[in-house]
Automatic annotation (TrEMBL):
PANTHER family: PQQA PEPTIDE CYCLASE (PTHR11228:SF7), RADICAL SAM DOMAIN PROTEIN (PTHR11228). Residues 11-226 form the Radical SAM core domain. This is Radical SAM superfamily enzyme, MoaA/NifB/PqqE/SkfB family. It comes from the Bacteria. InterPro entries: Aldolase_TIM (IPR013785), Radical_SAM_PqqE_MftC-like (IPR050377), rSAM (IPR007197), rSAM_sf (IPR058240). Keywords: Iron, Iron-sulfur, Metal-binding, S-adenosyl-L-methionine. SUPFAM superfamilies: Radical SAM enzymes.
Amino acid sequence: MNHVPRTVGFKPGERNIFFHILTACNLSCSHCYINPKQHGTQALDIATIQSWLKLFAAPGKKSNVIFLGGEPTMHPDLPEAVRFAKTLGFDVTVDSNGYLFHDFLYKVTPNELDYLSFSLDGPDAQINDPIRGEGVFDVCTTHLQQAVQLGFNVSVIYTVSRRNIGHLHRMVAVLTGFGVKKFFIQVIGLRGKSATRQAGDESGVQVSREEWLAVVPQVARQAAEAGIHVTYPKVFLDANETFGCAGVVAENYFIFPNGRVYQCPLCEDHPVNSYRIENNLLVKNSGLTEDRFFQLNIGEGCVMNKLLQPDTIEYDEEGRPQHRISCCLLKQEIG
């Protein structure tokens, strides 16, 4: 197994469909990015889910669909949606908070679902539950272990913030103990709830460049040495790296129940979506939309980060950026 991280460059024809089939959730995580005013509050019926999946099906191309919420397993027809997506040729992932409503584990099979991903933001209840909710750690890990025992391919997502970065290293033993072989480390984005800093939290929720680089690559390497495949955001470009925007090269679509379709997740708090679904047709929006910015080349790297998260960039005394921010979809892999 390779223990040297590699940057996964964008490839033409790469297709990922992030499908929010509802926005409702039983939890109220402090960093949730869902914004009902911008994303809608409805749950799509199964007929609509199937019609919208057809819009993004591309026979002959490798395409991934990730069912999201809210909490997607709250939708009673999710198993049917999973099976329908497979008939269209998608590789299918479900991202869950671990509650797995409607006996989801027993209504799909490991052959029908490529990955079942669980969100954990701490190695124990003392760290996880203040972020995600009381009792969540026990419920999530119980269902995670059941999924592993039933033969599902299981992954875990950990969103790094100031509240839990000091405990990221402890996740290696936790994942090993549960038999998890795939680990996603995420950087917290300033959208949804995390865009508003909690009262009295002057330092915000995002970690600094120094904290990220000192902790995340090292933990990823430790996890890889333990036999776990790790994916994490690049975030900061090396001095000799060229900036590239996924919106220019790859096909990534972030679909919400109100019909908005974004290409850049940083934009999801704003009505600048490139597309919309109207009468079950995919329609290109006109005007000042996100894709108008993708081709811009600036010293700070990602133009959307510069516009929407300017506090994440540091400048020297002459006003030059001290580092460049990568596209938020640029990943590194190890293991």
